[in-house]
Amino acid sequence: MIKQYIKQALQTLRENRLTSVISILGTTLSVAMILVVVLQFQIRQAEYSPVSNRSRMLYVQGINARSKQGNDNNNSGLSAQVARECFYPLTSVEAVSMKAYDNLVVSLPGKRLFDEYQVIYTDPAFWKVFDFRFLHGQPFTEADFNSGLPNVVISDYLARRLFNTTDAVGHELLLNNLMECRVAGVVARPTKAVTDTFADVWLPYTCNSAYTESRNCDGICGSFSAVILARSTSDFDTIGDEIQKLTARYNDSKADYILSIGKPLTTLERTLGNGGNYSENRIGWMEYLRTTGLVLLFLLLVPTLNLTGIVQSSIQKRRSEMGLRKAFGATGGRLFTQMVSENLVITLIGGLAGILLSVALLYFGRSFLLSGDTVITFGMIFQPYLFVAALFFTLLINLLSSGLPACRMSRGQIVESLKDENK
To answer: Which terminus of the chain is more exposed, N or C, with fewer CB under 10 A?
Structure first.
């Protein structure tokens, strides 16, 4: 029976080419627009290098420091002191790393350059939390970090710009034409879509006293955010509890300020829109759907209403055929299934085209949708969620556009259908 429906649908495509093309284009555009929204969500949520362990990551974007007298209240990043006292001692984690961003001029000894590149000041655990692909060399070591030696890791992009080769291990470079650094390793440049890892230079924050010696808010406020890699997602609550215990112990040593650290964010919570500095107000699915859901509903309903009229017109031409089938014993349910199944072939074609169009729109419009030179990889886009979402919205469009006309036709009287009368 299904084979017969497919044959009938293909025959209808050939007989009503203009109507079929309009139906396919309408479905394609609708699915493509919806999937662009879904793809942006997926890119922030999916696991791919260097965030292959995203499902086990937790994030602390900022802290709150308030004076015990109540006359000063600050939301800011973490200091190196808070990192040492409240994060590095964590025992329930696989790894925890601190990171701070800056933009610095990178040049060569004896050759002054003026181009700025993004720099991440971090620690050795950064390379455990994130799985970068090293092309040459290795990360800076624990000894480099403890000694404050400016041994750096650079991207292959910067290596080619400075040295005309990716094998730049052992070469010297200058940061802001002041700090002499030695290249310890070269990694494949990460995509800009992962803001946690994107940079062209990574170096120990201990080589810059501005990051190790914070005097703001009694040494609490700083420039860092924390990324925690849990052994398992089941450890998330345990990690949060341990952070609170370490924070309470830290506060006992403070005379003037009280440190508050909120519950770490999961990757999903960040994707939903949580982030920034310290905040106890969380955005959940309901708040997210109030905004994004309305956009999806609009993108779904507008083309669906147009397609409903086209499908209605196509079905009206077959009233006499449906009446004849009813006269020979076909039930209303059988006729409804036939018409919806035939239209499904058209919407599936449009859905497949919609997937390809959404990827093209995301790629060519990435300067607007993501950021200018974001690299979009196969692993970022082609996740199971994409095909599930495409199938869901395609089936939904098919049901909404063909369901009502098919229901009306299947309930029509035999005599009226055979006379081809429209009640």
So the answer is: C
State the amino acid at position 3 in one-letter form: K
pLDDT of residue 122: 98
Rounded distance, CA 64 to CA 71, Å?
14
Calpha distance 350→23 (Å, rounded): 8
Measured CA to CA, the distance from residue 254 to residue 68 in angstroms comes to 10
The pLDDT of residue 378 is 59
Q: 179-187 and 151-155 as β-strands: parallel, antiparallel, unpaired?
A: parallel
The confidence score (pLDDT) of residue 412 equals 55
How high is the pLDDT of residue 167?
96
The whole-number pLDDT of residue 281 equals 63
Contact between 330 and 6 (Cβ < 8 Å): no
Q: What is the mean pLDDT for each group of 10 consecutive residues in the chain (423 residues)?
A: 63 68 76 77 82 94 90 92 97 97 94 93 98 96 96 97 96 93 96 89 96 89 96 96 96 92 91 69 70 70 64 62 63 69 75 82 63 57 67 70 66 52 46
The pTM (predicted TM-score) of the whole model is 0.75
